[in-house]
Amino acid sequence: MELYLKEGIPTKSIHTLVIDEADRMMDLNFMPQLRKILEVIPTKRQNLLFSATFSPRVDKMAQEFLDFPLKIEVTPQATAAKMVKQHQIAVPNFRTKINLLSHWLSEDTWSRVIVFTRTREAADNIAKYLERTGMGPIRAIHANKGQNSRINAVREFADGSVRILVATDVASRGIDIEKVTQVINFDVPVVYDDYIHRIGRTGRAFNTGESYTMVSPADEYHMGKIESLIKEKVGRIKIPSGVTIENTSFEESQEMARAIDLQRRKENPEYQGAFHERKKKG
Fold it and tell me: What SS3 state is found at 2?
């Protein structure tokens, strides 16, 4: 639209409209922008819509923008990559996650690894910590990084000059790098489709791969939802004996308790919270 408003493109010559990453566009609420684009391009055109997942919202979008579409489905919806061996591991707190991450990355067999975090701040902090402990070279990519910085980081990761890429979900889609040996979910994604996209960064081009998801007490709810989505149980493993299990700080404990309360209220509107449960027991 910006190019059109600047008279930078002749819209009359457009014959094909391609809507890519439709599910992500729905997540980011780009429908108003799409409708504006449709107002200024020819009505006689070919429309192509691509989506990694086909939720009811995407289906509604397809009905609005496409006329008598032919639907081609490569794999069933919400299918985890079959070449990926999935693991989940219960981890009590952030500091133990860091210890576990360092333990894994000290292994030589972990040769090309993507670590996914929920926030940009976490991605930066983890990358800096791993650099300080001699795990580098490491790159972090997220939406606050410039495009050139992200492109260069992915290129270095692909050519092997960078072993570890720490990323938010900006990298969970559209990056096709062969021979990623492991994907680590430092945080469980709360947009459950993103789990499928994250672990799909490994096990590509007929190669096998592994995914490891660290599950805090507050993340068990989300992990259960993910297992329901992919229609399979993710294998549980224990924290290796060489990893130090830290005590959970009061602040982190309180934060997780609040998150668990919200989850329980979401499932049961009559749930009054852990405080009321303790009072009833007393």
Answer: helix
